[in-house]
């Protein structure tokens, strides 16, 4: 039986892969290209984190991420036209993925002995760097640099984790608090159209 | 005396570097930029593989790859205009490189104790990721995501390696079979214009 | 009290971060995006070097680089319009950063036992790869591949380091000579508009 966290991980990976595959298909990528972009979107953030932390990337130890991306590709291929009606559902799943990946990234870094400020960066990278790699592959300016509260939600969640830990709250509660804050920060930011200001542009 | 494999490695590196340098020159890169793009095309895939496998990248242990890229740059500078007549030759050498790099990548991963499904990904990365880095540097959508059987040939070759190994064929034969299949898959796919389908494009 | 090298490191990091933040602001990135681009410009070269050398990236051991990038962001936000008058100053600081980062990269690689030809590449990467990552993030062809003597100044400085070391000059003197040569090479190249030739462009 998969655990609750494993189910969330699968849902998040699936949603991230879907986002990569849909953007790739909009650029007329072939199946292989779409698969690679979907996979990189799903596991790219965790891979960058693991390279920096000098541990073996998680996807190299369990083929579930490859399989999950394959299912996402089949899903997009079958329901391509109708997926637009599911945008709210994907947004929901994607935000679950963002929250879970942040918690996993922070927790993994702390367990390896890194200080909290490094762990928060690693958590944010786990959540957000896959989308940057996706946008580099499809040759667009990374979306998260220009629009929406996205990686910032990870940073806020990571700070909440830190505050909870400082208050000597049980680690399990810290993680749940972090995940919920990431989730709510993004949902509320999108609902109320909260953005960061852009810079004025004098290069 | 260089071994047969070393000669193939040199030929493949040379062909990969040429491909990077020619595309860089089409974008008006200077000599330095063209050299870097050529080098990244030639060794980028192996470097990404070695970072993921946590071993020292091969080009940092032997200057032959730097020298080979330098020769490729001189070659393109001297024969720039006439290279287009050699396109078939380059395609042939490039495909030799693709086949050899795949075999090397699969073999290295297996010798480090990784399972076959990881080794096949590493083999494909060794062959194909250099071209992705090249295309990111010249600010184009990676060619292998949209056109031609390329990385897919590596995957097919890797699967053949696996099947041979499962059948307890001698490792040396597995490698030759893998290389020949990569080579033929790409040659035949180009000859008969076999492509993967593209996705329908509803982002 | 910070040492002289620490002050140069701070100045160089600040200048590199400013360059990333200004280019990001010209593309209408938000604060977060500009911060990330500035940070990647400042530490990206050293991070790539440390991944290749298999050591923990320097910025993960000391929060000073995060703080320095934050100050650079505040600086650009406050003085955005007027920064253009400081272009010569930034060019000066940026070149100090380039020189110092090269020396640090060469020295770190040598101290880990790598041969000189690897150390020179690592020094040049430390100085120049951050700018490449910056340009990938803002979706432009990397500037250093097309214009100006930049990474080539690092290579020249690295070669001077090598010659000094071969002549059994004290390591401290080697480093100063390397840094001065990088600095002067770039300053003189810009002053006298010295460029590398571009390739003729027949892809």
From TrEMBL, chains A, B, C:
Domain Glycine transporter positions: 7-79, 92-164
Annotated compartments: Cell membrane
Signal peptide (residue range): none
Bilayer topology annotation: Multi-pass membrane protein
Broad class of the protein's primary localization: membrane
Keywords noted in UniProt: Cell membrane, Membrane, Transmembrane, Transmembrane helix
A Pfam family hit: Gly_transporter
Any one of the GO CC terms: plasma membrane
TM stretches of this protein: 6-25, 32-52, 64-84, 91-110, 116-137, 149-169
Entry keyword Transmembrane helix: yes
Family: Belongs to the UPF0126 family.
Protein name per the record: Trimeric intracellular cation channel family protein
Species of provenance: Mediterranea massiliensis
